[in-house]
């Protein structure tokens, strides 16, 4: 099949998955509304944290009031993209292995990684995408400096690289379910990864925090996922070295996670065997 036709096919499948997931959510509307309300409560907590943080100071490690709000908007949007598209799929992956339902998924004529990554779309977290984008748009207006087309392209590229890094980390964690069957304890590492994403890497400038900054910038670059794209517009910082390293890290993590996933599937033993 030609690459273009294959991409079009997978895009159509993604639309089908989204429609199926929406129908499933609407079957339990009360639960859906509750999930949306909880997301809004979390946003309120985030904004209270922001207001409290800047009550007595105007600048935190080089981030002023509105550049930090842009950072929070970027984090909220990226987290929303991850939770909407594939977080639920990876959380449930171990249950597919334990119950034997993974057999059915592997028999379908579609790339296993694509199916297991995107078959469930979480519609309750989509508001995060709009709210986070709104926070970024408001911050840009308050910051006041002009944003060029080149800057926007760099930002979008780094944002997608951050999504790719988060996706790869989740894929590697969920793949361990093939060997461990139940890997909930390992999945808790995702929340550590998410927590590190939540704050600018500049807050780790103290001497005692340098080991944290080095490990989570070069070994497991969680500190770059939001900081690098947010700096591009929020602080007008375009550092070619960090941008190249983030792009390379994202590409390597996607390739490495793909290899781990393929290895785990090769080691899988059918529940009927």
Quick structural gist:
It contains 13 helices and 2 strands.
Note the topology.
Blueprint: H1 3-26, H2 29-53, E1 59-60, E2 63-64, H3 65-91, H4 93-99, H5 102-106, H6 112-118, H7 126-143, H8 149-175, H9 177-180, H10 184-197, H11 210-219, H12 224-234, H13 240-267
Antiparallel strand pairs: 1-2
Helix pairs in contact: 3-7, 3-8, 3-12, 8-10, 8-12, 8-13
Order of helices and strands: HHEEHHHHHHHHHHH
In spatial order, strands of the major sheet run 1-2
Give the strand content.
under 5%
- What spatial form do the alpha-carbon principal axes imply? globular
Q: What this model shows, in words?
A:
The chain has one domain (3-267). Helix content is 76%, strand content 1%. The protein contains 13 helices and 2 strands. The protein has helices spanning 3-26, 29-53, 65-91, 93-99, 102-106, 112-118, 126-143, 149-175, 177-180, 184-197, 210-219, 224-234, 240-267; strands spanning 59-60, 63-64. A two-stranded antiparallel ribbon has the order 1-2. A hairpin with a 2-residue loop joins strand 1 and strand 2 (63-64).
Features:
273 residues; mainly alpha; two-stranded antiparallel sheet; 2 strands; globular
